[in-house]
Write a structure and sequence with these properties.
The structure is a single chain. With about 280 residues, the protein is of the alpha+beta class. Helices cover about 25% and strands about 25% of the residues. The strands form six sheets. A three-stranded antiparallel β-sheet has the order 6-5-12. It has a three-stranded antiparallel β-sheet with strand order 7-8-11, with no helix packed on it. Strand 9 and strand 10 form a beta hairpin. The longest helix is centred in the N-terminal third of the chain and has 15 residues.
């Protein structure tokens, strides 16, 4: 038939599309000897972030909603308990990237160390964009270096940010300030001694800045769960343990839609904890 592609052409097209946009499955052999396959988690996340219908709804920063809990990003665990380097590593303001646990200068000249980035609605139930951010500075300056006063936490709007760590390195001599690479230590409690600074290497700053090489770093929270289902269409039970995940940054009205539930792995032989090793391997 004229004008109809051949089977070979369709197979070649499918192979080309799969190599560019497909999700590969990675083979694992668990600690108990069972063989199982796990879909490539980074590819699934990349497709979610590239989907214009989904990307606009995903939240990457927690929100201080004043005690209201309507969405996952308003929960205290995301806001207060998770390591800030994972939960909210940086924000971008203009042409500068500001990372947590790096020396930063405010518009009033104060040098601080951001601890957390999060949104805070100015009007109840209003939508927030990632540019409306606040952070908690935790630093004070000294004569030859900086001692971080972690107990002296202050809440500041992100529009008061002036200089990020790289720009501070370029201007501290002209401003006659201590070298921002010289962090003497931190004081956890008022009146106590100075402890060593271990949150970052102060000579290079936050490790995410080095790894990002100018790109934005965003957290992508997920709900990961395992469910047992039958592999048979008949009434005979054939147990399969399956791992799936959804993006925790999606509104609850969208998170349970079938298109937003992503399959990772299944097996009727390997137990869940054995398969979880492969998923953790990809996360690490």
């Amino acid at each position: 038939v004229d004008g109809v592609p051949s089977t070979r052409m369709l197979k070649d097209l499918d192979n080309s599309l799969q190599s560019q946009y497909g999700v590969p499955s990675i083979r694992y052999q668990g600690s108990l000897g069972h063989v199982y396959y796990v879909n490539h988690l980074p590819s699934l996340i990349a497709q979610e972030m590239a989907n214009p219908r989904i990307r606009m709804h995903i939240r990457h920063y927690p929100e201080d909603a004043g005690g209201r809990l309507d969405q996952p990003w308003q929960a205290s665990r995301w806001l207060h308990e998770i390591d800030p380097s994972i939960a909210m590593p940086m924000i971008r303001k203009g042409q500068q990237d500001f990372y947590v646990f790096e020396l930063t200068k405010l518009t009033d000249g104060t040098v601080v160390v951001p601890e957390r980035w999060y949104t805070k609605p100015s009007i109840p139930h209003s939508s927030m964009s990632p540019s409306d951010l606040e952070y908690w500075p935790i630093a004070s300056g000294g004569a030859s270096g900086y001692v971080i006063h972690r107990y002296d936490t202050v809440e500041v709007m992100a529009n008061q940010l002036l200089l990020s760590f790289p720009h501070l390195l370029q201007t501290y001599q002209a401003d006659r300030e201590p070298d921002p690479c010289n962090i003497i230590g931190l004081v956890e409690t008022r009146g106590h001694g100075v402890l060593p600074w271990t949150l970052t290497d102060p000579t290079i700053g936050n490790r995410w800045r080095t790894q990002a090489r100018g790109r934005r770093v965003l957290s992508y929270m997920i709900w990961l769960y395992c469910d047992d289902t039958s592999g048979n269409t008949s009434k005979k039970w054939n147990k399969h343990n399956s791992f799936l995940f959804t993006a925790a940054g999606l509104p609850h009205a969208m998170v349970h839609k079938e298109c937003n539930i992503h399959f990772l792995a299944t097996s009727n032989i390997a137990p869940p904890l054995e398969m979880l090793d492969g998923i953790v391997d990809q996360l690490e």
